[in-house]
């Protein structure tokens, strides 16, 4: 091996800084990716829950017969139920059992909720064949002829605040992912510049030995890509474990709403690809920064 080749090999080892082991850059990348994946999981889960809620509530109505006299209330409920089942746009109309209503009222009324003289409205659950706005309007208009005691509530209307919160969380999570990606690129830029300053003398020797800017940049790029990959694997695995643990806990609650805040197969694939995207982002940011900085060193 010639003297020039030995000198170049020594310079490369100094630039790559292999003897230092895992540097702070690795831990920074792991933490950044961990937080990014948690934010991405939140966004994907809430977006999926919002879509599920839309599908579950679309075309669903609740008809209330608000009548104090039990006899008149039951008679009106029977007529409304018959009319609903005869409407072509209604796929399903089922009266809500009095025992179910009593069970729902028990936390607020206690044993008094079971009193048969309690003026509890009769309720009918309705599923429309068409989930559009026009179908719901037609059904509500047809029921108005039964008198002012008939009230029609759309599930989408009273659950819209929840849906709005979910969509807000989705956009917030997306903003956090973009912010974390920008912060990661900034960290890589600072690390690359610090490395260039630390090894300025070595880079000068490499230039005198015939190394080009692209060759030097490739060395730094390889080191940063390796740090990003190690940090990405560690942070990514930790994030996936945390997300899986939270998903199991939410599923165990038995709540239909919270149970929908879970990830599908495509969501898991997207999360698994985030570490790859982080490594690519770090590598490109390092290459652009180093190539630009090397033009001003010598």
Describe the structure.
- Mean pLDDT is 76; it is low at 3-16 and 18-22.
- The chain folds into two domains: 3-54 and 160-297, no CATH class; 58-159, Alpha-Beta Plaits (2-Layer Sandwich).
- α2 (24-57) crosses α8, α6 runs parallel beside α10 (265-297) and α8 (213-252) runs antiparallel to α10 (265-297).
- With 298 residues, the chain is of the alpha+beta class.
- A four-stranded antiparallel sheet has the order 2-3-1-4.
- The radius of gyration is 32 Å and the shape is rod-shaped.
- The chain has helices spanning 3-16, 24-57, 70-86, 98-109, 133-143, 155-198, 200-208, 213-252, 256-259, 265-297; strands at 60-65, 90-95, 122-128, 150-154.
- This is Cell division transport system permease protein.
- Keywords: Cell cycle, Cell division, Membrane, Transmembrane, Transmembrane helix.
Give a brief outline of the structure.
By secondary structure, the protein is α+β, with helices and mostly antiparallel strands.
Give the tags.
298 residues, alpha+beta, Alpha-Beta Plaits, 2 domains, 4 strands, disordered N terminus, Cell division transport system permease protein, transmembrane, FtsX
The figure for the number of domains is 2
Determine Rg (CA atoms, Å).
Answer: 32 Å
For the residues shown, what is the average pLDDT?
Answer: 76
How far is it from the N-terminal to the C-terminal residue, by CA? 28 Å
Poorly predicted spans: 3-16, 18-22
- Series of secondary-structure elements, N-terminal to C-terminal: HHEHEHEHEHHHHH
Helix content: over 70%
Main beta sheet, described? 4 strands, antiparallel
**Share of residues in strands:** 5-15%
Structural class: alpha+beta
Shape: rod-shaped
Major sheet: order of its strands? 2-3-1-4
């Amino acid at each position: 091996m010639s003297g020039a080749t030995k000198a170049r090999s020594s310079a490369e080892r100094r630039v790559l800084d292999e003897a230092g082991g895992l540097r702070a850059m690795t831990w920074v990348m792991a933490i950044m990716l961990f937080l990014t994946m948690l934010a991405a999981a939140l966004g994907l889960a809430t977006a999926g829950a919002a879509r599920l809620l839309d599908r579950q509530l679309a075309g669903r109505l609740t008809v209330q017969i608000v009548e104090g006299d039990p006899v008149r209330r039951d008679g009106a409920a029977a007529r409304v139920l018959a009319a609903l089942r005869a409407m072509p746009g209604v796929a399903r109309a089922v009266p809500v059992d009095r025992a179910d209503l009593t069970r729902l009222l028990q936390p607020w009324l206690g044993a008094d909720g079971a009193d048969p003289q309690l003026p509890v409205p009769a309720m009918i659950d309705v599923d429309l064949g068409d989930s559009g706005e026009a179908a719901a309007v037609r059904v509500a208009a047809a029921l108005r002829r039964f008198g002012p005691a008939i009230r029609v509530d759309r599930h989408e209307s009273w659950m819209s605040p929840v849906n709005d919160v979910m969509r807000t969380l989705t956009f917030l999570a997306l903003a956090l992912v973009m912010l974390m990606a920008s912060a990661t690129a900034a960290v890589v830029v600072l690390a690359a510049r610090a490395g260039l300053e630390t090894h300025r003398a070595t880079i000068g020797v490499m230039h005198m030995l015939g190394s080009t800017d692209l060759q030097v940049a490739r060395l730094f790029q390889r080191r940063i890509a390796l740090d990003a990959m190690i940090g990405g694997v560690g942070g990514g695995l930790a994030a996936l474990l945390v997300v899986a643990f939270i998903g199991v806990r939410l599923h165990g609650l038995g709540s239909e709403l919270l149970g929908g805040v879970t990830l599908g197969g495509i969501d898991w694939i997207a999360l698994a690809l985030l570490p790859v995207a982080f490594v690519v982002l770090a590598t490109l940011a390092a290459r652009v920064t180093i190539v630009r900085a090397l033009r001003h060193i010598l």
